Every structure is written in C-alpha cells, then in structure tokens.
Amino acid sequence: MSELEFYFAEQQAIMNMPEEDITDYLARRRRSRADGSYTFDPDSVIVDNDTSTLSYANPSTSHRRTTSVSGVSKHHSETPQHAETPQEHSRTPQEPGGLPQECSPVNQPSHAVAHVDALVGGKRQTNKHDLSPRMRKKRRREEEAINASADFTSQAPPHLTAAESNRSSWEGSLSVPSARSIHSVSPCEQPALSCASEDSAGMLVDTRQPDVSAESNAEYSISTVAQTPYHEPAAGSSENCNIALPADPSTSHHAQGKQSAPDLPETPRGKEPAIPPPLAYHRRSTVADCSNITTPPRSGPGASVPETARAKTLSTTGVRRNNGNATKRVTTKAVKTKGKGKKELITPLEYAERLQAGFSEQAVKKKKHSDKPFLKGKRIFYYGGDLNYAGPQTRNRMDIITRHGGTLVPKYDPAEISHIVTDADERVFLRAIGLKKLSDIPQHIPTVKWSWVVSGFDRAPVRRSAEASGKGKAREKAVGQDLMSNVEDDEEYEYPMGHEFEHAAFKDRIDAGRTPWGEVAKLRAEKGAKKDQSTSKVRSGTGQCAGPGLQDHSAEDISNISDFTQDIEPPRGAATITVPEGLPSPPSSPDQPRLHSAHTLVSEDAARTTHTAPQAAPSREPIRDGESHAGHKARSASVMNSSTDPLAEFYATARAERDAEMFKVDGPDNESMPVPNGVRRAVVQKGFLCDDKGGAQRLAACPNQDVIDKLQELKSLHAVKPSKDDEWRVLGYNKAIAALRKYPTRIKSYEEAVAIRGVGSKTAQKIMEIIETGELRRIEHERTGDVEVIQSFLGIYGVGLDTAFKWYNNGCRTLDDIAARKGGIKLSTEQKIGLKYYKDINTRIPRAEVEEIYNKVKATALTIDPKLFIEIMGSFRRGKADCGDIDVLITRPTDDGKTHQGVLRRLLRELHQQGIITEDLCLPEDFDDLELVYRGLCRKDANSPRRRIDFLTVPWKSRGAALLYYTGDDIFNRSLRLKANKMGYSLNQRGLYAGVIRNPSDKRQKLDNGQLIASESEREILDILGVPWQEPHERVRG
DNA sequence: CGTCAGTTGAA
DNA sequence: TTCAAC
DNA sequence: GACG
Ligand SMILES: O=c1ccn([C@H]2C[C@H](O)[C@@H](COP(=O)(O)OP(=O)(O)OP(=O)(O)O)O2)c(=O)[nH]1
Ligand SMILES: [Mg+2]
C-alpha cells in the first residue's frame, strides 16, 4: 500500500470517526515513539547551564545570572548593508603558542559526572575507531543518555505553579517569532514593527506599532529571573523567562482577519482540534482548495464555487487537498515566454562544430565572469561516451572547453589535436574513435580525464615572463592582483594546469604527452585570448607531484587559497601575495563590498552558458587521490562504492542525460538573442535563481514591493500549514518572490507577470489582484486561527511543524501551556532550552555583537592552534546588519601534515570555561572527525542575552564547498544544488560530485557516491556549474 | 505527473 | 525512522 | 506553486 493510499485511508478513517475519537486515534498513532523513547523523564529535567553541558564541559564553571532583558527583535531587512565594512576581521594575528594537535583520542572528554565515568569509562578506553561508525554512534548515545540522566536527575523538576501556568500573559504576548523565518523568510522583510497580540477573547488584534511595540510586549512576557540557572529550582518554571516575542512582521500585518470560516474536516497531516479551540481551529484544506482561486468567493468558502477546482475537492470529501490541478483551468493563457529550450538531438560533432563557429564571433565580446583562458592553445577532442548524441553533459563540457579558450576539435584527428579528454571507458572510447588499441594514439597526445580541465579552474595565471621555457613549475610567480589591474593583456599570462599525467584517462597512457612533444603541444598556438580577470588566486606550488603511479594525495596543492584571497581588491601596486606555502589563513575579507564591476545583467545573461554534466568517469582507478579522507562516514551504510563499477557510472550518465534535458536552451546561438534591441528582457527569464546576482541591485526600491510583501505574507501562512503541499507551495512562492524582486519594472499585466520565470498563472493572478486592489483575499483565507499559535510554538528551538501541531492538538495554545506541559506533552532537551531562552533565541543579533563574539572565539581558537583557518559565515558573511546566529567555519591547512583534529573539543571546552558558550544543543558525532557540526548557545558576557552559535569544521580540501554551503543563503544553495543536479552533478558541503546515483525510491540513499569533481574553492565550483562568481552579499535570494 | 538540496544529530 | 535544523 |  503506498504511502499515499495509506494516507487517504487514514484520513478516511478519521473522517468517519466521531470527533472525540479522532484525538485518541491520532494520539495513539503517535504515541509509540513519542513516549517510550525517552531515556529519562523530561518532566523531571531541568535545563540548566551546568547540567546541559557536555563532556568536555568543565563542571565547575558557572557563570550565571541572566537578565533576560534582551530587547525585542526587530527584523531588519536582509539588505546587505555593506555599509559596515563587511568583513574586516580576518587577519587577526595569530597568537602563537597553541599546541597543535591534541593528542590521542583517548582523552575523550569525560562525561563529567562521576558515576558516568564508572559506567562508561571502560568502554571509552577502546579506541573509537575500532568501531564502525554505527557502533560508535550508538555507544556515544549510550554514554550521553547516561550522562544526561545523571545530570538531569539531580535537578528538581520544574513545574510551573498552577498560578503561573495559568497566566494568560503569554497568550497575550503571543507574538510570532520569526520561527520559520529563519529559513523561509525573506530578506526584504520590512523592519517588522508590528506585533500581534491577542485580546482576551482570543481575537487577534493587529497592533502594528513601531519598534517600541516590541518593548511594550515585554510586559507580557513573563520573564526573566527564572532563567537564572541556579534558581529555578523546582519552583519557577525553569523555562519561562525569555519568552519574548519577536514579532513576525510578515504575519502580523493584517492581523485582523479572523474570519472563522466554516471548515471542512479533513486535514492533511492529521492535525486535529482535539479541543475546540479558542480560536477557531480550522482544518483548512478544503478551504485551501477553494482558496486556490486567487479570488476566493466572497461569500465564503463553500458557497459560490468557481466550479472547477471546487467540485473536485468537495467530492474528495475533503480528504486532502490534493493538487487541485486536476481541474486545469486556463484562464488567460498567456504567452509564455518562459518555455525554454527545445532540446535538440545533436551529435557531439555537430555541437562541437557549432561551438567553434559560434565561439569565434560572439563569444569573445561578451566575456563573462571568470573564464580564464587556461585552455588557450589546447586543441581538444572531447569524447563524452556517445558519438550519436551530445547530451547535456557533453554539451556543457564542450561549452566549458570553449569558454576557457580551448579549441574544440570535432572529431578525432591525431594531426589536429593536442589533447583528448574523456572519462569514458577505454574500450568504449577506442571503439568510438575507431582504434584497436591505445597505443595507436600518437604518443604526444595525452588522454586525460575531465578532471584535468577542471584542474585549470583554480590555478592562478602566472606571468609569462620572458623565458617561455622555464615555465615548468617551480617558479611560477603568482600574479594575483597585478592581474586584475590589467586584465586586458592576458597574452602575458599563462595558465598552468594540472599535469596531464595526473589526470590520465587510461593508465596505460599515463606518460602520453609528457615527452618533449607534450611541451610542444603546449607551446603551440596561443591565441584566442580573452581577457578575464578576477582570479586573483594565489597559488603556491601546486601539487606537482610525483610521478606516474603516485598520487599526489597529500601534497595538497595548496593552490587554492583562492577563496580566501579571492578578490583581493586591487590594492594596486601591492605586492603580490605570495602564499607561503601554507595558506594564508588570512582570511581575507570575505566580503568586501566588492565592486563586481562588469557583468551587467545583460551581459551575464548573454554569456551564460550552461554546462554539461560530467559523466562519471569510469575511472578505473583514481589516479589521483580519490579522497583519501577517512572522514566521511556515510550515513547509510548501503553505498556501494562506485569508482569500481564502470557500469554504474554509465547508469549515472544515462540518468543524468535523461533527467537533464535542459536548461541549456540550446546552443550558443541562444546567446545572440538576448538583447533584442532595447527590449528589456535583460533580467528575468530563464536560468536558475543562482545564475544571476542578487542582492546588489536590491537596494533601490523594488517597483513591485507591495506585491512582494503580500506574497511574502501568504507564503508565511503556508509555511505554518502542515501539508506537504504547502511545503512545496512555499518553495514556489520563494522562487516567485525572488524573481519578482529582481524584476526591474512595475508589472502592468497578467501577461507580463506570467512571463516571468517562477511566476505561473496562479501567482500572476494574485499579483494582478494585488496591483489592482491592493489586497489579496487569499491571505485572509489562509490566516486560520491556529496560525499564530503554531508560529509561536515554532519559535521554540527544536520545535517544528509536526511537534507544533501535535502540541496544538493536545490542547496547548500558549507558551505557558507548553511550560506547564499541558496535555502531557513532552519536550526534548533542545526544546527545553529553546523554551527557556525563547526570547533570546528569537532575537536577531546586531552585527557588531556577532563580530565581537566571533573575535573572542577566534582568538581562543588560535590559541589552540595558530594555523587554524577560522571564518565567520552565514548571514554575517553575506553582510547582513543583524544575524540570527553566529556561524563559524573551522579548518586548517594540511601542508605541514597536521590537521584540526581534536580542535573543536578543546575549543568548546575553553569557551565553556570562559563563559562564552553556555549550553550545548547538539554535539558532533565523533569529536575526532575532521568534519564536525556543533550547535549551542553563547553570550558575549554575563549580562548579555544568549545567542545561537554554530561551528562547522571541515577537512581542508572541502573548504570551498563548505564556504559555499555555509555562506548561503539557503535559497541560493538549493538553487545551486538544483542546477548541479540538472547538470548531472551533485553538490553538497563537501564538494561537487559527478555520477552520484540515488535510490529512486529513497533519495536519501546513495547507490553510488560519485566522483569528486571540485571542492577546494568556491570559484571552481561555481565555474563548473556555469554560475557567475558572486560575492557573498550577492548570494541573497531569500 | 513527477520533482523540487543534501546533509547531520537527537530521540 | 522521523523530525528539526543548518 | 512552477515547471518539464
Ligand atoms: O536549510 C538550510 C539552512 C541553512 N543552510 C546554509 C546556508 C546558510 O547561510 C547557512 C547558515 O544557516 P543559518 O540558519 O545560520 O542561516 P543564515 O543564512 O546565517 O541566516 P541567519 O541570519 O538567520 O542566521 O547554512 C542551508 O544550506 N540550508
Ligand atoms: Mg546564521
């Protein structure tokens, strides 16, 4: 029985049940895990600073006393505000003296508490690495459970007194925390000054007020005091204080609305009004359906129904709002300009010819981002695995080759080519070019894998000094900034690439091209130059590694410090930055208000090319370090490693080709039409969200801001609805809003709106309604009674939609109810902390404070190891004026053979001691890994509010991907990843991979891990994806 | 009509 | 596994 | 909710 069927059946069952039973049914259905699973009784737990710490924590420290005075949040718009120099931090002199590596793993932090040691100690002795990840994890949990119970049980249970729990104060102050806003909210949210409050009658009143309102809210919150760690023994609810109310701008707006519409039963995820709610609780859904109509019937949901959608829904008995699409209605079918590409069946040969032809003419003019002509002079024959059809992967790769100055030779002609690039299987390849054996290929022609091309992305150009000869390697002089100055004459530079033998496609031909001929080939022809700039990567000796059979593995080429140095503004004249081998930890400013000059939207659009996907190389053998990282533990053990199964690779390719129809609108010719004289289609139209820079032009008021605000509001309502459909709907709104935000002119018609990519007919209708009436009725429709309550619950860290609805269904309506455990609900450890510091956590942090805390953290870390690379990420790096939390990335160059292993443990210990970190929310699975995640609370000093802080440590080699990921924003990331997918790649925080195959029936499961394509620098990854370089502040999409 | 990012940690 | 979070 |  499919999940869906089950779902329907269940809903049906519910529908037929008497109201009273529903609650029970639902409860029963969930109970299984909800209850039994806890190791200790949460009700008897108190969350306290000291107790909530972990292993490495020093039990003695105590910094207590908190005055939860924090001001109420005010949401700032996500406008980058580069005003304040984004990141000037960096370059903090590293304090010497840190002892590098920590010693053995044995010093597992003792789980402080004594008896725990007794119980666990023995186990701990054994080296964790002896255990499978699974086991280690399991064991760790055991330890923690013990630890937890030990610590917790020592505390008195925190129950609110009846009196307290009754207070309706919270209800009154119930304001919506931005909760969801964390991810879904958009940047442009206005400063949010409104707060909604609820009067005793349970009606919402829109109290939109200026900042101050926030303050006034304070009076409602019960706050403070109790939160002091020590004192909230049994009596005062250990968690009440901080409840503050950051108002959620988006929702509070039209608060008023409360029409309690009649509702139809039926609810998507089984949320049920177990209790006739004070605020009418509607099981919307059907309602939603009707709401599909942009213009809901005045009379109310059920009444006059615009036929279509309606009928169906009703007949379905309101079981679930399933895609009311069935009823297609196409009103004003507009001209859809967005329809893209015609996929053409073209052969690689034709495509290559076309590219070569087209390239010469048009390409040159609109040079786009960082296309370094590192393939200049190279005459390449590319074989993607199929001579009859150039799939998206092949096409994109060909585009890349061309874009970077390479000459694409359509067919295999030993006399014409200097390189053969292919990831195909040896036999397949030979058959394709009509040869019997590899040795039939002229020795001077190297056969390399795609990774060879990739290797050129991040190499810094070197000045081709007089002596053209000596170029070998050693003396490559980093050009860095000089380069930027005179971008024009790149004839002067040379773009070193990885050595061919490092990327040999066939092991039997590893030496091909290494002979003098190889050099000859390299030397010859240098022309199609183009200018290019930006890459100021500094490179030190690349990993010129060892000879043939050796993998350069470790030698790491440090070459890419790029990210960190990237864009070093041309301080002109400045000396070239040479990187001492190791890497500059000097994080250069990640976010200088760059003047990404060039790229007008148009040029960008024009220059856009899409790239092809890789085919997983049937790499028979990673000639070059695959990933020597021991690090990544696969979550699902069922990953059959690929690189060994060529077939799998081909499947990957096939899948990619099949799934990827796309995005390439079509050949390069497409390029030529972008600027149809004056027609301003510049911006919009096609492409992924990540393709165009965002943030930049946003400062100027958006001509459709009012529309955006409304849609934003509607989106935030959908965000608190339980169904899956709403979840996706939110995604849809996000995209539509992002598109609208960058749309340059005021929208005048439905047709114009619907022509925007990301905006469909539904949204277009809504847009027009807003433009014409200034209102959007659907909003009131979605604003059901549960919304505010749910939103307030979501403000508790650790509480998501499911939990929020569950509590709601258990009768909880206010934070007081939660604190009182009304309905017998249980809170996880995280949730307890979340409730306790509700206010603090929901208050955004002023940029300055983020920096202050970050600096302390950084200083402490450098004390542990001066070579650590520490950078602040997230919204801070993007230049936001206030941040939801503090995100810190930690890694360390490995050039000296050391790593940051064990650093986090020590760092946390120290920070705990200093009183900076006060509680932990989530600990890494294994502190000895190189890749760790930590989440906790911290504060600037004892008188400051608590702040959320996250640490992410990654292997040095993953830094590029990690920077990309951690810088976000989330919408940008998803877009980027989506694009990567469409291109046949898979992008995650560790790198860009090709050939990843997932289990179609469970996408979380990888059948093939794929092959790492890039991970060391952001630029390299973006480049391969054909996404123009974007400074952090330009990556704002939300 | 399927897809929409990809991952870790708590329980 | 599911939920929550990044 | 949009798109292929
Ligand atoms: O669903 C998510 C959430 C976050 N991220 C990445 C991007 C984001 O920038 C970074 C840090 O996450 P965080 O939640 O801290 O968001 P932020 O961008 O830093 O904003 P905020 O100011 O709310 O902290 O992690 C994702 O890739 N996916
Ligand atoms: Mg953040």
Automatic annotation (TrEMBL):
Residues 49-71, 163-174, 249-259, 288-297, 313-323 have a biased composition (Polar residues). PROSITE patterns: BRCT, DNA_POLYMERASE_X. The active site is at K766 (nucleophile). One of its GO terms (molecular function) is DNA-directed DNA polymerase activity. It catalyses: DNA(n) + a 2'-deoxyribonucleoside 5'-triphosphate = DNA(n+1) + diphosphate. Residues 370-455 form the BRCT domain. GO terms for biological process: DNA replication; double-strand break repair via nonhomologous end joining. Its cofactor is Mn(2+). Keywords: DNA damage, DNA repair, DNA replication, DNA synthesis, DNA-binding, DNA-directed DNA polymerase, Lyase, Metal-binding, Nucleotidyltransferase, Nucleus, Transferase. It is found in: Nucleus. It comes from the Eukaryota. GO terms for cellular component: nucleus. Residues 75-92, 524-534, 621-630 have a biased composition (Basic and acidic residues). InterPro entries: BRCT_dom, BRCT_dom_sf, DNA-dir_DNA_pol_X, DNA_pol-X_BS, DNA_pol_B_palm_palm, DNA_pol_lambd_fingers_domain, DNA_pol_lamdba_lyase_dom_sf, DNA_Pol_thumb_sf. Coiled coil: none annotated. Its EC number is 2.7.7.7. Gene3D superfamilies: 5' to 3' exonuclease, C-terminal subdomain, Beta Polymerase, domain 2, DNA polymerase beta, N-terminal domain-like, DNA polymerase, thumb domain. Residues 35-174, 231-323, 524-641 are annotated as: Disordered. It holds the Pfam family DNA_pol_B_thumb. Belongs to the DNA polymerase type-X family. PANTHER family: DNA POLYMERASE LAMBDA, DNA POLYMERASE TYPE-X FAMILY MEMBER. This is DNA polymerase lambda. It comes from Trametes coccinea (strain BRFM310) (Pycnoporus coccineus).
